[in-house]
Amino acid sequence: MDSLTLTDGRREPVRRRSAEPAGRPVLRDRPRAVQAVALTVSPGPPPPGLSAAKVVAYLHGPEPYLLIPDPAPGMHRTLVRWLQGRSAVVGPVVARADAGASLRWARTLLALTPQRPGSTGEILFVEDHLAKVVLLQDPLLAGHLSAKWLARLQDMTPTQQTRMEQTLLAWLEGGGATGAALLLRIHPQTVRYRLRKLERLFGSSLRTSQARFEILLALKIHGMAAECARLRHRAEELPSRQASGPRQDIRPIGP
């Protein structure tokens, strides 16, 4: 794997080749803080703002990324200008020893937001999607928690499931039948009718704080996973010819 120090635009070999696969990105200097950026493609030549910051880039593997040492306050604007039109996720600023965690979180969010081939990319910040990353960074465990509670609705039709999930979520977030009715814009009596059905399915679990908390997480996970699935489906719907071939406006860095 190659690395690139953006201060001079020259490609140099990584000395510790085992660091990247183990999740510990290599930094030649010893900054106090680091911010990782997960990329989908290698961007073009860096602007002066990035060069001055001594950003280190790893652009020649299947998952290119940047490491920004001690990011300055204006670094976000510089990144947005440089990566315009390309998908990327900016991780949070962390201590140097936690650079791998910042990169892992950025890659998690990048995987959860698939882009349609040929479409204009989007730059996301993990700080704006912390709940999604926390809940979905372990898909298997998240799916297990969701199935633990929501499998009780599996004998219903899809429409009934959706109504019950919406009612249960509104009840948990609204603090009762009246609050749920306001959130759903339906009559409180309709909410109470649905809640009686839910009580038969969930039993005494709805009366314990721990179970209510887990059910709320399960509903949030289910909703986020469904949205990710919709995004992925839309991305896959485009004709394959739009997804084939390199983007003409993207140039690799280096010779």
Automatic annotation (TrEMBL):
Compositionally biased tracts (Basic and acidic residues): 8-19
InterPro entries: CdaR-like_regulators, PucR_C-HTH_dom, PucR_C-HTH_sf
Annotated ranges, domain PucR C-terminal helix-turn-helix: 166-221
Region (Disordered): 1-24, 235-255
Name this polypeptide is given: Helix-turn-helix domain-containing protein
Phylogenetic placement of the source organism: Bacteria, Bacillati, Actinomycetota, Actinomycetes, Kitasatosporales
